[in-house]
Amino acid sequence: MSQMKWWGWxxxxxxxxxxxxxxxGPFIERAIDVRADHLASRPVGFDELDVRExxxxxxxxxxxxxxxxxxxxxxxxxxRVVHARGKSLRDLVRHxxxxxxxxxxxVVRPGAExxxxxxxxxxxxADAVLIPFGGGTNISGxxxxxxxxxxxxxxxxxxxxxxxxxxxxxSRIARIQAGAFGPALExxxxxxxxxxxxxxxxxxxxxxxxxxxxxxSGMQSDKYGDVADLTRAVRVxxxxxxxxxxxxxxxxxxxxxxxxxLGSEGRLGIISEATxxxxxxxxxxIILGYLLPDWGRALQAMRAIAESDAAPSVTRVSDxxxxxxxxxxRKAPTPLDRLKSKGLTAFLERKSSFGDLEQMCLAFVGxxxxxxxxxxxxxxxxKIVSAxxxxxxxxxxxxxxxxxxxxxxxIRDFLLDRGALADVSETSxxxxxxPVLYDNVMAAARGAFSDLGVRGYVxxxxxxxxxxGACLYFTFAFAPGPVGEGxxxxxxxxxxxxxxxxxxxxxxxxxxxxxxxxxxxxxxxxSAPGVAMLRALFxxxxxxxxxxxxxxxxxxxxxxxxxxx
Length: 565
Ligand SMILES: Cc1cc2nc3c(=O)[nH]c(=O)nc-3n(C[C@H](O)[C@H](O)[C@H](O)COP(=O)(O)OP(=O)(O)OC[C@H]3O[C@@H](n4cnc5c(N)ncnc54)[C@H](O)[C@@H]3O)c2cc1C
What we know:
Layout (H helix, E strand, L loop, with lengths): L23 H9 L25 H11 L4 E2 L2 H6 L6 H8 L9 E3 L4 H13 L3 E5 L19 E5 L6 E5 L4 E5 L4 H9 L3 E2 L12 H7 L6 H4 L2 H4 E8 L2 E4 L12 H5 L8 E8 L1 E2 L3 E9 L2 H13 L6 E5 L1 H9 L6 H16 L10 E9 L1 H17 L3 E4 L1 H9 L6 H7 L3 E10 L3 H19 L3 E10 L3 E10 L7 H18 L18 H5 L1 H14 L24
Helix pairs in contact: 2-5, 17-18
Bound molecules: flavin-adenine dinucleotide (FAD).
């Protein structure tokens, strides 16, 4: 896997462009007052960065080299810059301007679990800090070392540990090394007729270990489960030895140790491998597009689908603003496309359920399985959608969405180049809370834009339906006004949205973890004793605060050396 851009998302040679999407430029100008053809800023050059010298004692270097081999111990400047942070908006803004924060001093790349154990011993003996690094795609500040950290920081890049070790066909589980990136992992499974079914939008650049450590969720998690559901067992190298749980379907061995590792963000140790559910590659897979008249009926339809026997693999519906954005990102239409689109508009205008087409909501529902199963699923969903006033618009929009979902992440860099800030906040809540949660968040975001005196845009989609509720995923964008730093203005908007989640009874994040970005809402989400429990867990497993300190529950108290030590 090649390294990502040090200042942005994805591969060096790939970038988002508006030039092949005729409606996008005017849309952006109307929505956030930014011109798509006007470059307002670019990242500083790598040569202009002030990369401070690494601090790495000869004994620690020797121990790390003995652990993984000298070729896999790097103090290279680019390596250290890439491993310093994830890809949150704050990370991108600061990296682009050359504000690098506290860089890791060294990057080590273990190739097997015994090497990880040797790294752990060396780091603890030297009182160094260890930060596991998967793909570096988290957006919650889960990787950055505290600014005032004075110990040596070792970034442990897991990319060499990328193999599917074993597939147990009878049990439908596979043992996989934690550093496997989505494409490599899926390729090895597919070669034997299996899939993990976990496809986050960051799939191309994120790893199994990172998914587990952040409790990730993929596009098809309605069918395959979130990573927390599909992870059966873990092996974790900790300061107290190697923790191993058994890949049993379920167990009553007290509070779940496996669950404690899920979402632990490197604070309990380094996950070396996991045993996960795998599924036979489906005979048929299709994503259909639907249009629903408005957000209220769209939510009701998704709830009815979740309650039905349809059990689709994807349920996703955009609100009116996000539907308008999606239509604006269409590539130049062919004459036939134009004809079809005119026909559809005329049809919707005649259909009594569609009053105001501006309120229309675009939905995608995915089906997987045997041909007969898919046919039954489609029929059930079709009936529900039409009972809520909606129509099916076929498979082409779904195919397009499926193809472009891994390109969309590049849009944040495109907007930053044009002086605009764009980011996401996502949550989950019971079905009964979703309508009011949505209204509260939209009001909070628009209130924040208005306080800042900027023209902002906020939009939402529902993804990931469950028995009891669903995930709402909000995207917002604006060009900062002249008063104060852009990043402070961003904090006002993001903070207002996050606070609306908490005040509405929702969670601080459905699948983006806590890191440092969301830590301030944790106590309101899980209560003070909940936070105390997590703190005790981290302090107990990591008494020297060597493991990714400061994430999830804030800085742990460092042990004070006894007099005379
Ligand atoms: C454009 C974009 C789209 C995204 N889409 C999604 C999405 O659809 N669904 C979703 O869930 N998330 C999404 N994310 C967030 C991110 O991709 C996930 O949080 C992902 O799980 C992080 O994996 P990673 O391998 O990149 O981990 P990293 O970012 O490298 O690390 C994340 C955290 O996990 C820890 N960690 C990593 N590996 C290990 C290990 N082996 N042992 C112990 N700790 C470890 C790190 O120390 C850190 O605390 C997206 C992010 C971006 C930028």
